[in-house]
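Section 3.1: Structural characterization of target chains.
Under the original work plan, the team committed to producing a structural model for every single-chain target entering the pipeline before any wet-lab resources were allocated. The record below documents one such target. The sequence was received from the expression subgroup and is listed exactly as submitted; it comprises 102 residues.
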Amino acid sequence: MVTTETPRGSGYGVVLRAAQPEDVAAIAAVHDRSRCRAYSEILPSEIPEEFGVDRIEAEWQDLLADVPAWRILVTEHQGSIVGFVAFGPCRDDDLPVGSRAQ
């Protein structure tokens, strides 16, 4: 686990750690909120159910189950997950097996 203090010495930190199965709902919620905010200008205000948070949560469960191929880290602030990063094998079907991500 990596812990870093916040700027200005505020006394509370940010924790970066490996995601756990119980983090999936929080990761999906952060993913959904960030997607809605990033694409608010081009997505309809009502996201169809097939693209909603339940689908995102299921996709994160699948990725987390695929460890060690995938690595998923979460960022916690004051006990809440506020960010995530995932990295793993290249998923481009048109690249040769073993290729590095682009």
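Residues 4-11 have pLDDT under 50 and may be disordered.
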